[in-house]
Amino acid sequence: MTVLVTGGNAGIGYFVAEQLAEAGVEVVLGSRDAAKAEVALRVLRERVPGARASWARLDLADLASVNGIEVGGLDAVVLNAGVRLEGPQRRETRDGHEMSFGVNHLGHFALTAALQDRLRPGARIVTMGSFAAKSAKLDFADLESKRDYQPKTAYERSKLAQTLFALELDRRLRAAGSSRLSVVAHPGGALDRLTPDRPPLHVRGTKLNLARIALQGKDGGARPAVRAAVGPDVHSGQIWGPRVFGLKGKPRPEPVRGPYADAEAAARVWAASVELTGVEPVFS
């Protein structure tokens, strides 16, 4: 079994890759930075002796890079990589899209289209959502925050767009009679300071003992995506998240409700994404 993990060289993506490798899965780290990818592979092989792991060049801020990704057949892809900007200045991808929306959503939408002939029958497309998306509201007249840019709002909208895309993909896969699955996973509350050391990739700072009561490390945040990618009890159209208030603990499926249940909005996100990227995932 082979799984591509975007952003697999750091953060939650690294722990997704590590846990998959521990389960005997061959992992491919999608990364735009060769040096960082090599460090992640070294750490991964130290943690999991005999791990089958490699990396593929992938820059989600550049649609040409996305369309040209060089990977073989896949049994799953975990659409994990993402950016969350802090500064007040609006930034754009190489293709002129707002950075959060362009990387987190449009890049992964285009990647799904690029991989459609390499995702094997029964393959899973796992989209990494976010707890933050639950409070987001899309503005279809300004999806890329050109009029009123707020970094937090732009991030939340990008994660809601991702989740709606994944659920619309599920509807389209079922309508086409495809055996492939589209599943959403989210990490809950995953903090660096609760994350175990993986030097030099990650070194934990000051411990937050009180935070540990309600939150978890990025290793815990990786578990829903791993379950979605390889779990035997996973079904297309599900959302998997942590068991305890959606913030920490073992993965479990969550109800698809609120903004996630808006099929009309999901169809509009899909149509806008096709227009903005010039590609469309089509499976049979």
UniProtKB/TrEMBL annotation:
It comes from the Bacteria. It holds the Pfam family adh_short. Coiled coil: none annotated. InterPro entries: NAD(P)-bd_dom_sf, SDR_fam. One of its GO terms (molecular function) is oxidoreductase activity. The keyword Oxidoreductase applies. Keywords: Oxidoreductase. This is NAD(P)-dependent dehydrogenase, short-chain alcohol dehydrogenase family. It comes from Amycolatopsis rubida.
